[in-house]
Design goal:
The protein is an alpha/beta fold and about 250 residues long. Helices cover about 35% and strands about 15% of the residues.
Length: about 250
């Protein structure tokens, strides 16, 4: 670390996400996945979300086999603990709902046999693919969900390098009625230049419906604070009509 970086003033949060209203993707239930490690960190992140302009948040922990074998019942119980802790800490952002981020993996198909998904805004199921390769049979499982009455949102499509922007596979998903959710931090290069480029390309194509922060911990929160000072991102938020504010 250079002396310059050591004494570099940290960015001050700006409320550029106010137009979105609701953050619909974050991991702020402590110790259930790779997100927040403790309640204090969750509170810090919630305060940051408020500082950058959000007034509501929907928390979406991972459901991933076998890495995060969470159950809906346990997640709901822990979610209620977050609500109580936030209230005691005087957190001003409204914790407005619980959903899940469901990995389409080897454990997903059995879920469809007895579905009890935690839905975003009681309507959408947030799903994700592997970052390395898409599991065979994804289309059939998504179709099965839709036939059961679920609306499907695909989390951060810009992070799947095998999903070509403007390619046949992406077009197929959109024709199937899948909604796309971009990660805000992708626009600032948090996940690398390729994800940043792909995110802006998808926005230019008009195929993104939602934006989420995907906040996991204080590192993400600081990156989100820095992003709130990014004028290019602010312009995106000013002109692009995301559907976040329709959720609650």
């Amino acid at each position: 670390m250079t002396i310059f970086n050591l004494f570099k003033k940290k960015s001050e949060a700006r409320p550029i996400f106010a137009a979105l209203g609701t953050d619909m993707h974050c991991h702020l239930i402590p110790q259930v996945d790779d997100g927040s490690k403790c309640m204090e960190e969750s509170i810090d992140c919630l305060n940051t979300l408020k500082a950058v302009g959000y007034n509501k948040v929907i928390i979406t922990p991972h459901f991933q086999h076998p890495r995060f074998p969470n159950t809906e019942e346990d997640i709901v119980r822990r979610y209620e603990e977050v609500i109580r802790a936030a209230r005691e800490a005087g957190v001003e952002i409204e914790i407005a709902g619980i959903g899940g981020e469901y990995r389409i993996d080897s454990g997903f198909k059995p879920r469809l046999e007895n579905p009890r998904f935690l839905k975003v805004a009681d309507k959408y199921v947030l799903v994700e693919f592997s970052l390395h390769q898409q599991m065979m049979g994804c289309d059939e499982m998504i179709f099965d969900m839709q036939m059961k009455g679920y609306e499907v949102i695909l989390a951060h499509p810009e992070r799947y390098p095998y999903l070509s922007v403007g390619g046949t596979r992406m077009e197929q998903l959109k024709n199937q009625g899948v909604f796309f959710q971009v990660n805000a931090l992708s626009l600032g290069g948090f996940y690398g230049e390729e994800a940043r480029r792909r995110a802006f390309a998808m926005l230019d194509m008009g195929i993104i419906e939602f934006m989420g922060t995907d906040t996991h911990n204080n590192l993400y929160a600081q990156a989100l604070t820095d992003l709130s000072c990014n004028r290019k991102v602010e312009k995106v938020l000013e002109k692009y009509e995301f559907l976040n504010n329709t959720l609650l």
